[in-house]
Design brief:
Blueprint (H helix, E strand, L loop, with lengths): L7 E9 L13 H15 L8 E9 L2 E9 L5
Parallel strand pairs: 1-2
Antiparallel strand pairs: 2-3
Length: 77
């Protein structure tokens, strides 16, 4: 999706029945982040020019929904 400012946003959606054991956001491990970044890189390879990008997480714990903008980035992976 694109943000209002033109940033391309890759969104990882995670869900859990409740917030026990750290909740849904805690399931976005370094490995999962690497997988998301890899997928984004492959998508971006088809574009002539890379727009600004960010990785958000939508964490759903039971009935609670939390949108975490810029939850992680590609640096250091």
């Amino acid at each position: 999706m694109r943000d209002r400012d033109g940033t391309l946003v890759f969104v990882e959606v995670r869900t859990r029945k409740g917030s026990d054991h750290g909740g849904a956001a805690a399931t976005v491990s370094r490995g999962k982040q690497r997988t998301c970044i890899w997928g984004a890189q492959h998508y971006l390879m088809n574009l002539r020019e890379w727009p600004p990008c960010r990785f958000d997480v939508v964490a759903i714990d039971g009935d609670d929904i939390h949108w975490i903008p810029a939850a992680f980035d590609a640096s250091g992976l």
